[in-house]
Design brief:
It contains six helices and 25 strands.
């Protein structure tokens, strides 16, 4: 195998695939990236056995072939080469190393046989649906913060993507919850989406897909089966297993009858919560909200650090009440609201609270209250 490639093209493609590779691996081949050179250019593959990313780029190939090399080491070498450099990659059977040459820089890396590299099959994947890249970014960004990190409830460790019929309209919906909060974002379902199986896409896959979307074109192709999901971003493709489990019936926890409506200035509210939370106990981070006509009082009490109180004006003219929330959860939701006003709908101090974005009715957030 022998080829010459521009540093910029090499680092972009390597950057796409190397982040899948775990830093610590008990299986040596999984620390490597598969390099496949032919007349069409150079292809890169990396996997952790649950997910695989493949990318391709142009190169001047004078000798085709395949080999695997340490992914992170190769990426760091290329990253530190001078901008604009032409990089020569060469592997010949008599020297069991990958040679990397750029100007006066020369490196040799150990290799493992390409035949030992695991390849993820795409069996069973459905017909493609095409999504607008910006629309997919919105679905992910509005919901992924609520994905659970608690490994015992593994079926919450991902984003639930599925289609629903609501008010006679087909919608593609993403939902995430950790049991304390829930985030939902939806869009009109693209052609061919109805009838696709609902899948729980793992957190790491969502993170990698979001990163690849930064360099995607205007559209993304998506294929889904009951066991796998595949995103295609131009010349890059991400294939992943999905979480084998049943996502909870989230619709039951979305409040329908919350009639106490409070409109707050998002930025002022977030700043006030952040200030009073400074003295909260780290574990609970509990903030009490005392809601009265025209006024909101935020209070945090900590036996060791003292007390913090903030008052602000709100748009509210109903009965006064008190309710408590985790400050971090309040701030996370504030960060997702697109406009200046955040709409909060309450029932009573013990019931879930619904948070809406007046400028984006396709998103909904649910927060479970804390005892205060």
């Amino acid at each position: 195998m022998k080829l010459t490639i521009e540093r910029a093209a090499l680092i972009k493609a390597l950057g796409h695939v190397q982040s899948v590779v775990e830093r610590r691996n008990t299986i040596p081949i999984l620390s490597n990236v598969l390099l496949s050179a032919d007349k069409g250019g150079l292809a890169f593959s990396a996997t952790d056995l649950d997910m695989e990313i493949v990318d391709e780029t142009n190169a001047q190939v004078s000798g085709s072939g395949q080999i695997t090399a340490p992914a992170h080491t190769l990426y760091e070498i290329v990253r530190k080469l001078p901008e604009g450099a032409d990089v020569e990659l060469k592997f010949q059977g008599e020297d069991p190393r990958l040679s990397i040459t750029a100007g006066r820089s020369r490196f040799n890396l150990p290799v493992l046989p390409a035949g030992d590299f695991p390849v993820m099959s795409s069996d069973g994947l459905s017909a493609r649906i095409t999504l607008d890249a910006e629309a997919l970014i919105r679905l992910i960004d509005k919901t992924r913060f609520a994905i659970s990190t608690e490994e015992t409830r593994y079926y919450l460790n991902g984003l639930y993507m599925h289609t629903v019929m609501e008010d006679g309209e087909a919608k593609l919906r993403c939902v995430a919850t950790d049991g304390h909060r829930l985030a939902l974002a939806e869009m009109p379902a693209p052609e061919g989406a109805l009838g696709l199986p609902g899948v729980i896409i793992p957190r790491k896959t969502i993170q990698e897909a979001r990163r690849l979307l930064e360099d995607a074109g205007e559209t993304v192709d998506l294929q889904i089966s009951a066991a796998k999901v595949r995103f295609e971003f131009g010349r890059a493709a991400l294939t992943s297993k999905v979480i084998d489990g049943a996502f909870p019936d989230y619709a039951r926890v979305i409040p329908k009858e919350n009639n106490r409506v409070v409109n707050v200035d998002k930025a002022l509210f977030a700043s006030a919560v952040d200030r009073v939370a400074t003295i909260s106990a780290e574990k609970s981070r509990s903030v009490k909200m005392q809601i009265e006509p025209g006024k909101l009082i935020l209070t945090v009490r900590n036996m060791e650090a003292g007390q913090g109180v903030e008052e602000m004006e709100i748009d509210y003219d109903d009965e006064p009440f008190e309710i408590g929330f985790n400050a971090r959860y309040l701030l996370d939701v504030c960060g997702q609201i697109g406009g200046e006003i955040m709409e909060m709908r309450f029932a009573d101090p013990a019931s879930p609270t619904l948070v809406l974005d007046p400028v984006d009715r396709g998103v909904r957030y649910v927060l479970m209250p804390l005892r205060v």
